[in-house]
Amino acid sequence: MFTLLRLAAVVNMAALLAVVAFLVWNGAGALGWEFFTEPPRNAMTEGGIWPCIVGTVLLALGALLVSFPLGVASAVYLHEYARSSRFARYIRLGVNNLAGVPSIVFGLFGMSFFVIACGFGISLLSGVLTLAVLTLPVVISTTEEALRQVPMTFREASFALGATQSQTIVRVVLPAALPGMLTGAILGLARAAGETAVIMFTAAVFFSKAGVDSIFRPVMALPNHIYVLATSGADIEKTLPLQYGTALVLVALVLGMNLAAIIARDRLQRRR
Amino acid sequence: MSAHSALGDFYPTDDSGAAKESLNITPPGFSREKLIRWILAGIAGCSLLFLALIMIFLFMEGLPIFASVAPADFFLGRGWYPTFDPPEFGILPLLAGSLAVTLVSAAMAIPLGVMTAAWLTEIAPAFLRRLCKPLIELLAALPSVVIGFFGMVVVAPFLQEWLDVDTGLNLFNAGLMLAFMSVPTICSVAEDALYAVPMSLREASLALGATRWQTTYKVVVPAAFSGIGTACMLGMSRSIGETMVVLMVAGGAGIIPTSLFDPIRPMPASIAAEMAEASFRGEHYHALFAIGMVLFVFTLAFNIIAQRISEKNRRSLD
């Protein structure tokens, strides 16, 4: 009977390996120096994906730049100050539900709030801010987990030496929790890089000649590029190698970041 | 004194005002500590603020549709023809599409996820567990657009050829792709639940002569039942809100599905596909936001049910 359970596990692993192997098999041919460094040419049927890579990196890093300080401060408040007060319970409820909001709803929110109400337009800035809200729960929950791992004795020792609570947090607790927090940051980065529905409404265009010269301009991005090429490009059959190549780059980027986070966490746990 | 006031947050001491007054000392940095605490509380409140803003803007842009379309026609209307003249805004086909694809994916993902979790906690040797858990996390990390792409270029032609259906982009294909997206969620939450079952229960069962399989499905799984319930709710919440997969793979036909291989148009796909062509603050635009509202309420309900179940579980374990 246990064969059934083994089979289920094998099916899962096989699904991951199938997707990755398939993309590597078909996409590796498209990769090359030109693919990484050139913008698309000839109605998107030739050339590379350089502007998409830049766009995705800027969107993900920008989002994290906003959500990381906010998330860390929230987690510090929840874990070091509030603990299980009523206010903290409401915040936790809010964070949990924010994590469950579908990405398309984040897209609608970003469009109506940042793009229209704040007047930022379809732009890098709108995309960054919407993605920041989306990654906030990831940063908060991983940081809180990292703070939980810091032994209570560290804090007690610091207090006993006469340090105030803020001094204790800045000089003792946060440095001890830093590796765990960075792991969370990488996960947030990966989540933002792979997100499609949000940037479709807030930041991405299929093609922009100018490149990125202002945060108020729309950008090209990898996920959006795959979607448009695969569903409504000028010549879907002809761009198939480009689609595989772009998908492979995105998967390598996202899985690479996740793998780095997993390995870092593993090391951390073994050291303890 | 300052250290004492700081400790107060960890060890509730009876720091009554009278004692402070009699000492008549304001601890140095006291007000600064208070200020920091309030600033951090304000930042932590941002999450609630964002959730509130999402709701406000969703309802602000979505509710106006009910000025021109009666709620009954909106929710129960069978025709979604937003670009016709006169347009029809009945979301029943989209609602049915979303529910159908969620159920199909749940039918595949729940057994698969729970069985994998049971394999991980009950029988997998340690080295396999250490290898497989990260792999499942990686499966969760695959961007949805890539899974949608895979469904389009690999699974759809395959289905079309082998099952001889009109289009490979259909309910079954979308359900299958969503299943692989929700399996990691279901698996990791269910695994936590199974892991939390006390070892003594297993030992008692084995001591009574039950086999390991009997112990697993008659003792361990029932003991972790509510945790597994949470896992299923969270998995379904992820399926119903997922956009790119259903946008690329579900086929896009706004009909109420009658067969497993009918093309469908779930709610997120409709929003994503049509928002670009909807005129700003026109009827169609408001209707799409109203669909977003419905979607938000659905996922919120799933999440709250999941949280309730897990809270109850925690209390009963204590």
Indicate the topology:
The complex is a heterodimer of chains A (272) and B (318).
Chain A: H1 2-27, H2 33-37, E1 40-41, E2 46-47, H3 50-82, H4 86-100, H5 103-117, H6 124-149, H7 152-160, H8 165-194, H9 197-202, H10 222-232, H11 240-271
Antiparallel strand pairs in A: 1-2
Chain B: H1 2-7, H2 17-23, H3 30-62, H4 65-68, H5 71-76, E1 80-81, E2 88-89, H6 92-123, H7 126-141, H8 144-163, H9 171-195, H10 199-207, H11 212-223, H12 225-241, H13 244-249, H14 267-274, H15 283-317
Antiparallel strand pairs in B: 1-2
Word description of this protein:
- The complex is a heterodimer of chains A (272) and B (318).
- Chain A is mainly α and 272 residues long.
- Chain A has eleven helices and two strands, in the order H-H-E-E-H-H-H-H-H-H-H-H-H.
- The model of chain A has no long low-confidence stretch (mean pLDDT 88).
- With 318 residues, chain B is mostly helical.
- In chain B, 74% of the residues lie in helices and 1% in strands.
- In chain B, helix 10 (199-207) packs antiparallel against helix 11 (212-223).
- Classes of the chains: A mainly alpha (272), B mainly alpha (318).
- At the A-B interface, helix 1, helix 3, helix 4, helix 5 and helix 6 of A face helix 1, helix 3, helix 6, helix 7 and helix 8 of B.
The radius of gyration of chain A is: 22 Å
CATH superfamily of the largest domain in chain B: MetI-like
Under CATH, the topology of the largest domain in chain B can be stated as MetI-like fold
The amount of helix of chain A comes to over 70%
Total count of strands of chain A: 2
Mean pLDDT of chain A: 88
- What would you report as the Rg of chain B, rounded to the nearest angstrom? 26 Å
List the defining traits of the structure above:
heterodimer, A: 272 residues, mainly alpha, 76% helix, B: 318 residues, MetI-like fold, 2 domains, two-stranded antiparallel ribbon, globular
